């Protein structure tokens, strides 16, 4: 069991930050909250759009039923993201690439803000809102390059309709991405779980994989989550404050 939530890193964590070679980080919506991106489950509320809970509008069933409505929802979300910039947590994690021998950054976020901060090779477990994928040939295209306004956009490779390249309710995660994340989690010495309510599986299971394999697991979140009780250490605070603090010894 971890001790009570803390606001500063323990001596043990500071030592582990100095000595760890392989570090695994899982982030969720909370890491982007200070960039102005709303979380899904903040303050006891769930996201709703045009009267529809996001579990409905962001569902595999909706792609079948009303693909233009799904595009409208993701166009709206992309529009809202247009002004959002990486915050100190994204920037600190981007710098961690040079700090550790191996850093794996896996995110549930689809906003692309880790890459915008300079993180390379981010494992995007739930896809990316800036990418479209062909329903037929699975070709992927960056929407900023695609430039066409028709909805759904036509695949440049085969002409068939495209969909947002994000994981929707009722769908599996991209198995290659998840398998790599699970492998890295099982091989890390130090694991951080930052800004996720840890309710959506299988992503929320990655810290448990790390812990079973002997890693020291640290949660960063202003609120308790179902993982808090099984982490080695809980840093209670906002990611934009805690992550930069961990760079300076905590
Ligand atoms: P949630 O909205 O469920 O949880 C956000 C978490 O961030 C909560 O635990 C907050 O306490 C925490 N938080 C809020 N502000 C924070 C801050 N400044 N710093 C650190 N933490 C903060 O978001 P996720 O856990 O990411 O999936 O949700 C997981 C998945 O649920 C999403 O990827 C999405 C959704 O269904 C899909 O769309 C497939």
Describe the model.
The mean pLDDT is 93. 39% of the residues are buried. This protein has helices spanning 11-19, 30-33, 54-57, 60-65, 67-81, 88-99, 113-116, 143-146, 175-186, 206-212, 239-247, and strands spanning 22-27, 48-49, 52-53, 102-107, 123-124, 127-134, 140-142, 162-166, 190-194, 216-220, 233-235. A 6-stranded parallel sheet has the order 5-4-1-9-10-11, sandwiched between helices. Strand 6 (127-134) and strand 7 form a beta hairpin. It is α/β, with parallel strands linked by helices. It starts with 10 loop residues before the first helix and ends with a helix. It folds into 2 domains: 11-37 and 85-126 and 172-247, Rossmann fold (3-Layer(aba) Sandwich), CATH 3.40.50.1220; 38-83 and 129-166, SIR2/SIRT2 'Small Domain'.
Q: In a nutshell, what does this entry contain?
A:
With 250 residues, this protein is α/β, with parallel strands linked by helices.
Low-pLDDT stretches are none
Helix content: 25-40%
Strand content: 15-25%
Mean of all residue-level pLDDT scores: 93
Count the DSSP helices: 11
Taking the sheet with the most strands, its summary is: 6 strands, parallel
Please specify the SSE layout and strand pairing.
Layout: H1 11-19, E1 22-27, H2 30-33, E2 48-49, E3 52-53, H3 54-57, H4 60-65, H5 67-81, H6 88-99, E4 102-107, H7 113-116, E5 123-124, E6 127-134, E7 140-142, H8 143-146, E8 162-166, H9 175-186, E9 190-194, H10 206-212, E10 216-220, E11 233-235, H11 239-247
Parallel strand pairs: 1-4, 1-9, 4-5, 9-10, 10-11
Antiparallel strand pairs: 2-3, 6-7, 6-8
This protein binds 2'-O-acetyl adenosine-5-diphosphoribose (OAD).
């Amino acid at each position: 069991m971890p001790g009570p939530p803390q606001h500063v890193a323990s001596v043990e964590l500071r030592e582990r930050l100095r000595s760890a070679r392989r570090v695994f980080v899982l982030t969720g919506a909370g890491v982007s909250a200070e960039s102005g991106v709303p979380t899904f489950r903040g303050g006891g509320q769930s996201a709703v759009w045009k009267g529809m809970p996001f579990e409905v509008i962001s569902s595999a069933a909706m792609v079948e039923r009303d693909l233009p409505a799904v595009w409208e929802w993701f166009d709206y979300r992309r529009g809202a993201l247009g002004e959002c910039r990486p915050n100190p947590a994204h920037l600190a994690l981007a710098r961690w690439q040079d700090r550790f021998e191996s850093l794996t950054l896996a995110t549930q976020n689809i906003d692309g803000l880790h890459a915008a901060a300079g993180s390379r090779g981010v494992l995007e477990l739930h896809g990316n809102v800036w990418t479209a994928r062909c329903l037929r040939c699975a070709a992927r295209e960056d929407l900023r390059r695609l430039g066409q306004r028709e909805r759904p956009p036509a695949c440049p490779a085969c002409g068939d309709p495209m969909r947002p390249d994000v994981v929707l309710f009722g769908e599996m995660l991209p198995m290659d991405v998840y398998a790599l994340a699970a492998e890295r989690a099982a091989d890390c010495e130090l694991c951080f779980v930052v800004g996720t309510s840890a309710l959506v599986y299988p992503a929320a299971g990655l810290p448990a994989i790390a812990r079973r394999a002997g890693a020291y697991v640290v949660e960063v979140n202003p609120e308790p989550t179902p993982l808090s009780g099984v982490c080695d250490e809980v840093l209670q605070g906002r990611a934009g404050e805690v992550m930069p603090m961990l760079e300076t010894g905590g």
